[in-house]
């Protein structure tokens, strides 16, 4: 059974990793949750959600998770919050939450620290930890942006791939974090007593402020990457114009040489060609030399 229960005098924390049918049966037998909530728990979530009932809150929150090779994916955590309990359901992919569950379960002082003042403090402590764990992911993304800035004038396909990957991660990050502020503000406006504890207002304000700062930094990164992408595309456009201009010049030269050969081959008077026995071989040699020179030039400019 992938279920762990931590008790104190006035609070019960039930943590479930990758819930199975027997775990859901335990919840149905011990809590009066709405049937639709169980459906949401089973189905993978694509968006943040918060529902307030008469005796409990149900929330679905998504948090960014960095997977190989450097791609940001959402990790889902479901919360049931009531007068004397907190239920968390997740897939076990976030070590921050796993470590907290283990510490609270094993150590009395940690249990007292997080569970002594009721479910509200425990919930906000978890949300605070899961929000702050995004900092290393954000730092990783900023390092990639700094590297992309160094390569902005490198007009290779790898630079464009890197910018596209960073932009995709920023979009994913923003989509995951977009509704967090709304959830926190809705919780802070709730009249439920189980959300109240000492300095709870300040705790909510700090979390909302952190989410706002994170959102502003994501917006700034989004604008920076978009400007890099525009600059790279503009430079690529100028380079393409130079290539086309050079190709046009060589095309004209090849056309004139080809025209000259055709005139020599199809001239009405064969005697005129006999009068210039080296003209055709010389023209062909010149054509081959120009072609070889063009190929060498293209390779040197890395157009081939």
Give the SSE layout.
Blueprint: E1 3-7, E2 12-17, H1 21-30, H2 35-42, E3 49-52, E4 56-67, E5 71-82, E6 85-90, H3 95-106, H4 108-115, H5 119-132, H6 134-150, H7 157-177, H8 180-189, H9 200-265, H10 270-274, H11 279-300
Parallel strand pairs: 2-6
Antiparallel strand pairs: 1-2, 3-4, 4-5, 5-6
Helix pairs in contact: 3-4, 5-9, 6-7, 6-9, 7-9, 8-9, 9-11
Features:
304 residues; alpha+beta; Beta Polymerase, domain 2; 2 domains; six-stranded mixed beta sheet; 11 helices; 6 strands; 63% helix; 15% strand
Structural category: alpha+beta
Order of helices and strands: EEHHEEEEHHHHHHHHH
Helical residue percent band: 55-70%
Write the CATH fold name of the largest domain: Beta Polymerase, domain 2
Per CATH, the class of the largest domain reads Alpha Beta
Short description:
The protein contains 11 helices and 6 strands.
